[in-house]
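Hi R.,

As promised, here are both runs. First protein below:
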Amino acid sequence: MAAKTYRSGTTVSVNIALPSGRSRHISFNALSNGTSVYTTSDEAVQKGLESHARYGRLFTLVSAANTPKPKAPKQAAGNGADASAKKVIKVPVSDWGTAKDYVADRFGVSRSALKSHAQIVAAAARNGVEFTGLE
């Protein structure tokens, strides 16, 4: 599953038409420099964004990368001491929007519960994930 990141020079919210005929409202995540980004691995949303009338002018595709799926920790057989140790999976991400989408899509955490960087990191840690590439 390839995650794609779109960037705009301003804070953007657009309505897109999905291949199914339905529509969806997409809000880009605002950055401190006045731009905004949106990352998704949903192919229907990607097609809707790329067929939007303002694609290429209002917002553009800036990266496409395969998002690794986290591996489930193996259950250790034996004395049980290893079973309590949680294996941490390191996931490289380029920005906080990507990290937020990863946690929301992979673990079903509500995006409204991921408003701050600390909440994103805590939700990832609860699920055995540590993000690399963020400051």
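And here is the second one, sequence first, then its structure tokens:
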Amino acid sequence: MAQEKKYKLGDLEFDTEQEYREAAADLKRIKGLVDKYNVDDPEQAKKILASIKAHPDTFQSPYGMKFVVRLERSAGITSAPPADKKSDKTTEKQERKAEKEKKKKEKRLAKLKEANAKDSQKEKFQIFTPRNFAIGVVIVACVVVFSVFAPRLFKLNNNGDSNGDIRRTMVTAYANSQAELKMQLYTYYFNVVGQTEEEAQKDAQEGLGHYVMDLSDRTVSTMTDSEISDIYGRLVEGGDIQNNSFVEPSEITVLKDKLLAAGLSGNTGNGVEGETAVEAAINSMMDYQYRISQSLCYNYSLLGNSREEAQAYADEDMASMFGEVIYDYDMTIEDKQSYFDSFVKRGLIKDNQIVRFSADPTAYNLPELTPVIEASFFGEESAAYQCSMISYAPAASVFYEIHTGKKSGYLCFRNNGGNKDYIQVDEETSVTAQGDFFWVLGSQVQTGKWFYNQQNIGVLINGDKSSTIRYVYDLTY
């Protein structure tokens, strides 16, 4: 005999898939409510209970019902005893009452049957009596009135159901927005970060987990009005919809900012039908170069540079990375073939696919800083800073965001030294300057040249070489 399939949810086990799904949905809703509210606070518990009362289908499993009981206790509300736990005394009264009603009904039926038997000869088949005629007139009048006013009534009802149309529109827009974001996130993780398909799909899916619900793979058009109403209620309860307007989770806003900085906003990453391999590769290269250029300009602007200055720095980096930068989308096929051959020689196109720069700055002899660094300028006492990389393909310049207390700023190392500038560390040692150094933190602005100095990074500022940035290895997690 085949073993029955069991469904598990953590340490919980269910006999049917339906029970499993209901429990999973309820537990997710409960977690959202517990994270958002203090369910032990009487006023907040009453607020949640009012929302549940307005949406009776909020919970479907015993876990949801237990949570409601907990809310009622917190709110100081005593639940009515369940129907199946009434006292024996009440049950007996109901049974006696039902028995009396049954006997009365039997007596009435018997009298009616006897009366019909007596009058059967007098009124047999006498349909057109004055009484029946009067009843018929009333029925006809009702039909006429209904035929006149029913269309207006239905029209009013339809207008009243406009809320249903609004809910469906909101849920549809919510799902479409998620589907588009999911594609952009996948493109970012797969094409930009260089993850595998499975890793990119996993991270894109986790990104959508910041929403109250993930509808990116569901077809809203096939949902019933009841399903739409239930989903809409959950979105309102979870805070993603307020006053019929979307409220975007802060984590989603951060993800979208990353996509915008990478030039991926609104870009699904799909190719164009009918392109040759050369055209597809060059078109992808132009798009890739454009996104890197935009990211570089944005990062240089964070350092306080004007738009023109940021663009000039970005142009230098682009030339260093690609050798040839192409922005002309009106090229002939011969021009594209020429660029294609050039990029193949540089190793930037392989097997008709562009080779993207690594996200690892150490691959280009640039520093990769840990979450914490210590910086000291002009030999003064060092200070610790939280440090996180914000670069997109850091092949020529790498950017970091730094924090200390309530202050925040940015740090940049450029790989543009060209082995021309040498820095005398001491009488016997000289090192090559790697490139430009930029530091902006509040009102503090430092610029100079950076170089590797044993385990630290040395910084040359106006001839002074005592400034250093040190990696912090002894982190406690």
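A quick note on the second one: The radius of gyration is 37 Å. Let me know what you think.

Best,
J.
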